[in-house]
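Notebook B, p. 112. Complex prediction, attempt 2.
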Amino acid sequence: MKVKKMLALFLALIMLVSMAACGSSGEPAAPENGGDAQGKVLNIYCWNEEFQSRFTDYFEKPGLIPEGVKVNFVITPNEGNAYQNALDEALLKQDSAAADDKIDIFLVEADNALKYVNTDYTLDVVNDIGLTDADLADQYQYTRDIVTDSNGKQKGTTWQATPGLFAYRRSIAKDVLGTDDPTQVQAALADWDKFDKVAEQAAAKGYKMLSGYDDSFRTFNNNISKPWVDSSNKIVIDPNVMRWIDQTKLYTDKGYNNKTSLWAPEWSADQGPAGKVFGFFYSTWGINFTLLGNSLATPESEGGKLEVGNGIYGDYAVCQGPQNYYWGGTWICAAAGTDNVDLVRSIMYTLTCDPVTMKKITEDTQDYTNNITAMNELAKSDFKSDFLGGQNHIALFAEAAPKINMKNISPYDQAMTEQLRLAFKDYFDGKVTKEQAFDNFYRAVIEKHPELTK
Amino acid sequence: MNKNLSNAARLQLRLSRAVCYIILTLISVMCLISFYVLIINSTRSHPDILRGFSFLPGKSFFYNLKSLMANANLPVVRAIFNSLFVSGCTALVTTYFSALTAFAIHAYNFRFKRAAFAFILMIMMVPSQVTALGFVRLMGTFNLIDTFIPLIVPSVACPIVFFFMKQYMEASLPIAIVEAARMDGSSEFRTFNFIVLPIMKPAIAVQGIFSFVTAWNNYFVPSLILKSTENKTVPLLVAQLRNADFLKFDMGQVYMLITIAIVPIIIVYLLLSKYIIRGIAIGSVKE
Amino acid sequence: MNSVHDQVTAVRKKNGSISYAKWGYIFLIPFFLVYVIFSFVPLISVFYNSFFENYMSGLKQVGPNFVGLENYATLFNNNLGKYFYNTLLIWVLGFIPQITISLLLASWFTSLRLRLRVTGLYKTIIYLPNLIMASAFALLFFVLFSDAGPVNDVLMHLGIIDQPYRFLSEVAGTRGLVIAMNFLLWFGNTTILLMAGIMGIDNSLIEAAEIDGAKSFQMFRLITMPLLKPILIYVMITSMIGGLQLFDVPQILTNGSGSPDRTSTTLIMLLNNHLYSKNYGLGGALSVILLIVSAVLSLLVYDSMTREQRMAQREKKRMKEGAGNE
């Protein structure tokens, strides 16, 4: 008897477990709604909450979601490539998935955009979704190039543009160059040769030109003359990338940088009151949120005021720097097989094309939005940033953004840029020769992409 | 006994005790440093943390706690309950069935015994990373994505826990006890549940703690199985915070969440570690 | 006693031990059932796929094309030995202090002679590091050992070094940190395992030896160690498997690069690189190699240690007899 009781107990336990699990697995799939072209569930795959908050504030709150449609955000953080793994699994099963389980919208980053855009899993925003060329005309060209497939079709849109600038310390510029005026500083940093010369001058006065090894990497890498991989799957090292390697090695050996890496504690500290670094390459979001926070002596959450006197607030200024580049951004793509085409079009239009919404996003959040007309309007206004000593940096962004050229993007950029920086850190540290660093780089990218060759 | 000798022995004992305490304290300090950093950082603001280390606490404890709790996409309390449920079930299921499997190999003689033992030892060495993606695909076919079943039920077959139970039985479970139970007319299943399991209590408590902790900190497989916000476990929320966009990225919150996530597991550990100690007191027939 | 019970006992006696064999099978059912359903299919595909070219190029499937042993050849031609060496070195250098300290602590905690106080507190503390997620632990080590971090501050303050030691840019520094972190994460775990093992030992044996005036080291070597052997074997083998499968600590600490110059790249980090493109061919081949290596090593350990155990048991018997004669 006892045996049976124990067995029953365990079966019950297992049943309980499975029921609890089923109970929390969300609503059961709704029956097919015959005839109705629009699905009842909109599934959005993403890796953080940025798009969700834009969506809530500028699409859901104005009441743009049709009645009876449930919006379901599937957030998979990308630690250990988990987001792409989950998205890939789901896309590959898209055909056989129930209508309400199909992905409708997914988000991509510039570095992995082409992996998705160059496939039939992603819909053409003009021919499939129904946005018009006029709708898209006001978007910055580089944001369109990043999601344009090999046939020239645009397959995603974004609400932000993220042009980069060089943010420098006014006090250090004055000491080194005798001026802190953005136009004159820009003239002194207009190309890489001049930049190197200022680095030398700064070092003579006891400053560092840059903080880390990879500070200038994006700027060089965004201006390569050919894609990272050629048509026969051979990896191409662009002269501009070689220039980054040589410049960084020189800066390291001569002490023009502080040997840090992006996001390391020392890198952030270099941007604060104790920093001795001439400047940082930063883009739209980085200036208002990261650099500003790092520059304060007393943080906002502890009652620090955003005013001159708190740390080095007011000591930074921005100029275009030696080359144009961008840093960051998230693109919205529509998945083939979506049963909500109309709703997807409405979302894409409202959040990435509609000038009224775009302007409002910028006003509310200080996001630099992807609308040329709206941004130029702001640039012409008397907007002033106290953090940048009264400079109108929106004007500079508006000037820089149209010049960014991302025609040479490839599906392999994520692996290439990550692995190159990691492999060459050893070279800058003096642990390996240049040849060994290249060898390690090739090894690492071919492990990730077996189809490539040296 | 010679009084002098006993005095010398006492002195020696006192000395060796002192050495023990010194070494134990040093090791404890080493272990606690990371907790100190963790707790200190949970009281500091994001820019302050980015700037480097500080031995002194900051003033952002309540700010971090409030902003963490205010985030609707991070149901912290719910995630702790999910984690408690998944880890608790895993620990129960894995210790019970591993002990049962070990008992089968330890106490019975049957034809395929050696083969079964060898097979289980073999699969113990399969690195879990490589089967993970195939496993997730399989769970998709079974329609078990976004449920807790793929996280709990497979722990019935946990070769490492089995191996421990088997080794433990070898040291502490004489067959004579099983045979004595048979003499008393106990059925095999009853013998296992009411005679073998109590003897195994220290082993069960140990492996219970370990499996609980492993399940609690498991990130990779849950990240591929669990989709909806209300099903997420704590490590997924930590990853989500670390992946937050620039507007929300806040290391203060990350440290706060890690700190909060450790509290339940410490409680479970304290409960079970007492149990290990009680396990010996209960004792049983020994050879 | 009722008659049914008598009958049952009679039947059992008649059939002897053979009638119990079926219970062995019955108790194995849950394990094998769950294993076959949840793990066997993915495992078989690992073996199968190791003979194929099979990976994803973006969302495009390449293969599966049968390539024979080519995947194995590719691995051996690509420095597999180096990663094997890294893994083994990190394991051995971590395991020796770990097992030594754990044995020492476990014997202190359970020693009837020392009777240490507040051991509960110490026992709790040494296991605590294991409770932190490895990723969070790595995050904390980053902070502590960064170029301008507190460890460098202290070392410079004490005058041991005059400029920051860049831990993660040095081979010894990186490997040392991985070893130290692994040690901190796992030594408490090992101590508890050994303690549980020692607690399973009959106290009367130790007490008897104590009355006979055995020295504590003698007692440890002659009574505790032999009886602890099964658990020691377990610790050795699982630590070795864990060591061969070392992954998250070096992965997070070096951002996946295994720098400097891939000297902290472990076998599973290599596997993880191949899994990026869902390369079931190369990944499968690597897993099969890992499986064979760990199986052979475990077998060696198991065999050598049980042989010693058999000898020790004989010795114990002799000692017991000796104690009886006195």
